[in-house]
Amino acid sequence: MGRITTILFAYRLGTSLEPECKMYRLLADIFNDTAMVLECLSPAFPKPIRVTILATSSALKALCGVAAGSSKASLSAHFARWGNLGELNAKDSSQETVISLLGMLAGSAVVSIITTPFATWSTLMLLLSTHLAMNYRAVRSVSMRSLNRHRANIVFGNLLANDKLLTPTQVSQQERVFERDGAMRNAHDKIMGYARIGVSFGELVEHLEVPEQSRIPKSSMQVRSSCLNILMDIFHPQRAEYILWLDSRTRRCWIVLRQNCSVGSQLRAWYTSFVALNNLMTVTTTNKKAGTVGLLSTEDTLDVLRKAQLHTQTHFTAIEKRLETAGWDLNTAALETRSGFRIGPLTE
Question: Which domain holds residue 189?
Answer without folding.
Answer: 149-326
